[in-house]
Amino acid sequence: MIKNEQERQRIGEDIAAIRAEQGITQQELADRTGLLRNHVCRIEKGRLSVGFDHLAAIAEALGKKVAFIDK
User: Fold this and answer.
1) How many CB atoms lie within 10 A of CB 62?
2) pLDDT per residue over 52-66, tens digit each?
Protein backbone atom coordinates (compact mmCIF):
# COMPACT_ATOMS: atom_id res chain seq x y z
CA MET A 1 0.00 0.00 0.00
CA ILE A 2 1.45 3.37 -0.94
CA LYS A 3 1.67 6.26 1.53
CA ASN A 4 -1.33 8.16 0.09
CA GLU A 5 -3.51 5.07 0.38
CA GLN A 6 -2.40 4.59 3.98
CA GLU A 7 -3.25 8.19 4.83
CA ARG A 8 -6.63 7.93 3.11
CA GLN A 9 -7.33 4.78 5.14
CA ARG A 10 -6.24 6.43 8.40
CA ILE A 11 -8.34 9.53 7.79
CA GLY A 12 -11.37 7.42 6.89
CA GLU A 13 -11.00 5.34 10.04
CA ASP A 14 -10.73 8.51 12.14
CA ILE A 15 -13.89 9.94 10.57
CA ALA A 16 -15.78 6.68 11.16
CA ALA A 17 -14.64 6.51 14.79
CA ILE A 18 -15.62 10.11 15.56
CA ARG A 19 -18.97 9.66 13.84
CA ALA A 20 -19.67 6.47 15.80
CA GLU A 21 -18.64 8.08 19.11
CA GLN A 22 -21.16 10.84 18.46
CA GLY A 23 -23.92 8.39 17.52
CA ILE A 24 -24.30 9.86 14.04
CA THR A 25 -25.26 7.60 11.15
CA GLN A 26 -23.58 7.76 7.78
CA GLN A 27 -26.84 9.15 6.37
CA GLU A 28 -26.93 11.91 8.98
CA LEU A 29 -23.35 12.85 8.20
CA ALA A 30 -24.17 12.84 4.50
CA ASP A 31 -27.16 15.11 5.10
CA ARG A 32 -25.05 17.52 7.15
CA THR A 33 -22.33 17.72 4.50
CA GLY A 34 -24.28 17.50 1.26
CA LEU A 35 -22.47 14.31 0.30
CA LEU A 36 -24.15 11.08 -0.72
CA ARG A 37 -24.25 8.35 1.93
CA ASN A 38 -22.33 5.97 -0.30
CA HIS A 39 -19.58 8.60 -0.61
CA VAL A 40 -19.37 8.85 3.19
CA CYS A 41 -19.09 5.06 3.33
CA ARG A 42 -16.32 4.99 0.71
CA ILE A 43 -14.45 7.82 2.48
CA GLU A 44 -14.60 5.95 5.80
CA LYS A 45 -13.25 2.80 4.14
CA GLY A 46 -10.41 4.75 2.53
CA ARG A 47 -11.70 4.02 -0.96
CA LEU A 48 -12.52 7.59 -1.97
CA SER A 49 -10.09 10.46 -2.00
CA VAL A 50 -11.65 13.77 -0.99
CA GLY A 51 -10.53 17.33 -1.42
CA PHE A 52 -10.06 19.81 1.36
CA ASP A 53 -13.53 21.36 0.93
CA HIS A 54 -15.31 18.05 1.56
CA LEU A 55 -12.92 17.15 4.36
CA ALA A 56 -13.57 20.53 6.00
CA ALA A 57 -17.34 20.02 5.65
CA ILE A 58 -17.07 16.61 7.32
CA ALA A 59 -14.95 18.05 10.13
CA GLU A 60 -17.42 20.89 10.70
CA ALA A 61 -20.37 18.47 10.72
CA LEU A 62 -18.57 16.48 13.43
CA GLY A 63 -17.65 19.58 15.43
CA LYS A 64 -13.97 19.19 14.62
CA LYS A 65 -11.28 21.09 12.74
CA VAL A 66 -8.99 19.77 10.05
CA ALA A 67 -5.47 19.54 11.42
CA PHE A 68 -2.33 18.31 9.75
CA ILE A 69 -0.54 16.16 12.25
CA ASP A 70 2.09 13.56 11.57
CA LYS A 71 1.24 10.45 13.54
Assistant:
1) 18
2) 999 999 999 999 998
